[in-house]
């Protein structure tokens, strides 16, 4: 008995020591913490998994495998790594609770691929950790002075605060903005004198904006989307025309090409990539705001109509959350809107969700940490600098802070980089606070 007790005690001590060593290894590798005081284990590649695997064996031998696996957000792993490495681990396959966690991860990826998964629910494990959620960029736009901004503001999720990043080369309002592969792209817009076809790219590693190839058509009020590769520039307008033009930018070759035009001209359109399609939502055809929606299939090079929204709107924000498309605010033909609609491609249906706390036309929208952020806009009386966030679980918007500049027509995107990489430039040169 004494010998068995001693062996058990030694095993516990060895396991505890292994936990401390492994946690220190992973902490040194990733410098990542939940920010909530709890130890966290994050692995994103095979090398990290190899380090983690030895400790998993110790946890398995001591009956603590499920406890430690709960710390890992399996649904956020790339599906190839999840199924090719994690799912094949015998110690995971032999533990019922771990298999439940693996099923949750599988169902998460199936849900995002527009497969019907009965009773699927989101959890803390399907939400990125603060450190890995990226940086929210608010780029360009204009305020009460009327002059477009070249300034950008960045949101630190950990600090819950905004700061100014390096300015663009050009002033841009009603600019298209997107982030692809850890870089931010600003395309088109209006500089206060003329419409722009130029594009510039911000690289967090150099903290500089670099001019890239220009579009073929100069325009403002365009929307950008990407299915993980090329960038699509959709619609837009100039002083004479609303466009149905769509151009595709190849990042590697730094070249633009033309793809199939939309069925309808759309200035002030919203867009997002969802599963295997690019959606164009609302906008104005030169006569009236639109409720119609169409989507682009890059394999067929074709746009097709899908179910229209419940409300006509242009200058609206569009983002993706939990496999659904959300369209936020905008203008009808008379005034800014506070209404928000959600489209589920699995059922091809729209429904209304909670409205914004204030109407916002020309609002910038992006999804961060499982919530939709709405930045700035115009409420019919003044330009806004307030920011509010939508919680889909509570079906509620709440104010979560403000940017320094009141601005509408700004581009908003989330970049897969670290806040610490971006140089804080203070107040910037466009220190305009006039919101009227």
From TrEMBL:
SMART domains the record matches: Kelch (SM00612)
Domain of life of the source: Eukaryota
Polar residues compositional bias, start-end: 1-13, 23-33
Keyword Flavoprotein: no
InterPro entries associated with the record: Kelch-typ_b-propeller, Kelch_1
Keywords for the protein's UniProt record, in alphabetical order: Kelch repeat
Region (Disordered): 1-36
Name of the protein described by the UniProt record: Kelch like family member 8
Organism encoding this protein: Rhinolophus ferrumequinum
Originating gene: KLHL8
